[in-house]
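Purpose: get a first structural picture of the assembly so the mutagenesis plan has something to point at.
Setup: two entries, given in the order below. No constraints added.
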Amino acid sequence: MRLKLVPSETNWDFFRLSSVALVASGVAVMASIVLFFVIGLNFGIDFRGGTTIRTEAHSEVDVAAYREALQGLDLGDISITEVFDPTFAADEHVTLVNVQAQDGQESVSAETIAAIEAVLQEVDPTITFPSVESVGPTVSGELVQTAIIAVTLAIAAVLIYIWLRFEWQFSLGAVAALIHDVTLTIGIFCLLQIRFDLAIIAALLTIVGYSLNDTVIVFDRVRENLRKFKKRPLKEVLNLSINDTLSRTVMTSFTTLIALIALFVLGGDVIRGFVFAMIWGIVVGTYSSVFVASAILLRLGVKRDWSKTDGGGASGTQFANIDA
Amino acid sequence: MLNIPLWNRVLIWGLVALGLAFAMPNLFYPRVERHNDAAAAIEAGTATEEEVADDLSGWPGFLPSSLVNLGLDLRGGAHLLAEVQVEDVYATRMDGLWPQVRDALRDERDTVGTIRRQDSPPDELHVRISQPDGMTAALAAVRALSQPVSSVTAVGAMTLDIRAEGDTIIVTLSEAERAATDDRTMRQSIEIVRRRVDEVGTREPTIQRQGDRRILIQVPGIGSAEELKRLIGTTAQLTFHPVTGRGSGSDVEAGAREIVLPDVEDEGLLYRLEQSPVLSGEDLTDAQPAFDQNGQPVVTFRLNTAGARTFCDYSQNNVGAPFAIVLDEQVLSAPTIREAICGGSGQISGNFTVEGSTELAVLLRAGALPAEMTFLEERTIGPELGADSIAAGEVAAMVAGVAVLIFMIGSYGLFGVFANIALIINVGLIFGLLSAIGATLTLPGIAGIVLTIGMAVDANVLIFERIREELKTAKGPARAIELGYEKARSAIYDANITTFITAVILYVMGSGPVRGFAITLGLGIITSVFTAIYITRLLILLWFERRRPKKIEV
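Result (C-alpha cells, whole complex):
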C-alpha cells in the first residue's frame, strides 16, 4: 500500500475556474503593490542603515524599561522587539534593539554602542550582547541596488533560457508566474511586517528558482504532449499535462515543505524570516505554475507543429539525446 | 537494455567514495581542526612536532583533512567593510612634489622670478611665479618632473597634469596616475591589514578587496568589531635606533633609557638600542627593492624633508656605527652607516636575497596605513550565537531528513529506499565538495542544505512517477524503468538548470551569508542530479539484475 497525496489517475479540469484564479491572482498582486506603497517593508539594517543589537538576559524582558533607558541617549528612532523561540532555554530572554543610522556617521560609533550597552546593563545586570551589527547608509543604499539588480537579472536570465528551450509564449507564462510569486512574497512581508533583510533576497531568488522548477516541469510535459496529440485542442493538452505531472508537483512541494517547516520550527529565530519567505514562496509558486503560467500559456496560444525539425522545435530537443 | 558498462559503475562508485572521503573529516570536526592547527604550527615553525604530538595524532595524516569553513555567523567573530580614503595619498604626493618643483623652478629663477606655494585644494599644487612672462619656461621646467606612469593599462600617460592659470602653475596627478596610485594604495592597505590581522594569529581570516576602494575584513574568533578596528588602526611602529650593543640571552641588559629588542629572524639574537629613535616611519616616504653597485639586493628608501635633515646630521656624526631598523618591536636589520647620508634617501643592505629585499621594502612601505579608512559596515557575532545556530540547524536538518526519508518509503516503497540512499549520499557529497573547494558554510548555507534535502528527491520523484506511467502501458518492468529515466531526463535538466542559473546569480551578486547560501544551493543541485540519475539508477539496476522480477511496484 502506497502513501498517495493525489490519486494516481486524475482528470481534473484546471481551467474551469482559470479566469477566477487569474483575477484573484491579479487582485493579490495589486494588493501587494498597494501594501508596499502604503505600509511598506520593514527593512532591516542591511537596506536602511543603522545598528541592530541582540540582547540576551536571564530575567524577563521589560521592553518599556529598555525603551525608557535608551530614550535618554537621544539616538533618534529606536525599536525594541522581543524575540520568542522554541529553541531558547527557559531563562533565555532575547530582544533585538534597532537604532537608526546616525546623522553624519557611516556606521554607529563605538562610543554610541558602548553607551547603549551600559544603560541596558543598568536595567538588567544579567544582560549580554551576542551580536552587534551596524551598516552605514552608503552600503545599505548599494545593497538595495544590488538586490534589485539580482532579482531582475535572475528573472531575465530565466526568460531567455526558457525562450531558447521552449517558445516565447512559454517564457512569458513562466515569467508572469515568477513576478506573481515575488510580488506576493513582498506583499506578505509588508502585511506581516517581518524584517526584510539581505537573506530575504536570497529567499526571493530561491523562490524564483523553485517556482520555475515547477513551471518548467509542467511545460516540459506540455511540449511532449503537444507532439503526441497534434489534433487535440490546446486547453485539453494543457489540462492533461498538468494532471500528468500533478502527482510529482505535489510530492516535491510536500517534501520541500516538510524540510522547510522543520527548519522553520527548529532552526532558530535568526533565519526564521528567511525560511518563512521560502515556505510562502513554495506554496505560491506551486499554485502559480498551474494557475498563472499555464493559464497565460493557454491565452497566448502556442505554435502547434513541433514535428518540423527546424527553428524552435529543434532547439527544444537539444538535451533530449544526451545519454546518461 | 538497462545495462550500465562496468567502467561507468566503477567511475560512479569511485566518485561517491572520493566525495564521502572528503566529507568524513567534518564528522570529527574538533579533532581534525586541532590536527590542522598543529600541522600549520609546525609548518610555520612556531611549534615542534613533539609539542603538538597529541593534537597531531588525533587525525591520521594520510586521510583528507580539509574541513568546511564555518562562516562568521556560525563561528562568531567580527566583520568590517572598510573604505580606503585613497585621495589622502594625492595630498601626500603633492606635498612631496613641492620641494622638487621648487628646486626645478629655482634653476629658472632668471626667467620666472620668485616662487611661492599658494593655498590650494589638498590634491593640487599651486605655485605662483612673480614674472608671468616666464610661464612657458616655468611650465617646461615643471613638466620635466612628470614621468611615464608605471602601469600596464596606461601606456604613454604621464604622471602629472600641469597647466597655467594667470601667474599660477597648477599641478595635479593625471587621471592615469591617480588610478595607478589608487591601486597601489589599496594593495598597500590590504597588505598592512593582513599583517596586522595575521599577528593575532586567528584561523582563516578573510581579507579581500571589494570594488575599487573597499576592503572586506572578516576575522573569526575575535571579540568584537571594535577590537578588530583597534588592531587594524594601530600604525606600524617603524623606527630607526642607534645600536649600543648586541648579543644573546642575558648578556644583553638594557641600561638607562635603553631597550632590548629581538632580531626578527634569529630569535636568540638581541639588540640593545637607545630608547629614543633617530627617525620614525612617519619620516619615510617610499621604499623600493633595488641592487647596489655590486649587484647585491638592497632596499632603497626616501625620507621627507625633516627626516632627511635629521638623518643627515645623525649619519654624519656616526659613520661606522650600526643603527637598527625596528618594526613592531623587532629588529629587521642593523646595518652599519658607511657614509653620511644627506640626500634624503638611503639604502639598507644586509644579507638579502631578492625576495628578502622585496619583502622588506613592502614592510617598510607597509609601516603605516597610506590612507585613512572609514568603516561602512561592522558586525560582531558572539560565538554562543553561532553555536546555537549550528545546533538548531543540525536538529532541523536531522528532523527534515528523517521526515523526508519516511515519506519517500511510504510513497515509493523499495524505490523510496533507493532514493533515500541517494539522498544520504547526496548530503555527504555536498559536504565533501564544500570541504574540497574550501567553501564557507553560513547559516543561510545550512538552510540551503535543508532545502536541498527537500528538493533533491524531486529528480527521483520525476523518474518514479514516470516509471509508474510507463508501467501502465505494460511493456515489462525493465523497459518501463529505462523509459522512465529517459523521458524524465529532459524535465530534470531543464528544472535544475533554471534553478542553477539563479544560484549562480546569487553567488555573483550576493555577499557573505547570501553567498554561502548560493554555494550550498548550487552544489546541492549538482550533487542531487548526479545522485538521482546515476546512483538510484545503479541501485535499481543492481537489485533488478539479482531479482529479475516479472512485476514491479513503484
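The mean pLDDT of chain B is 83.
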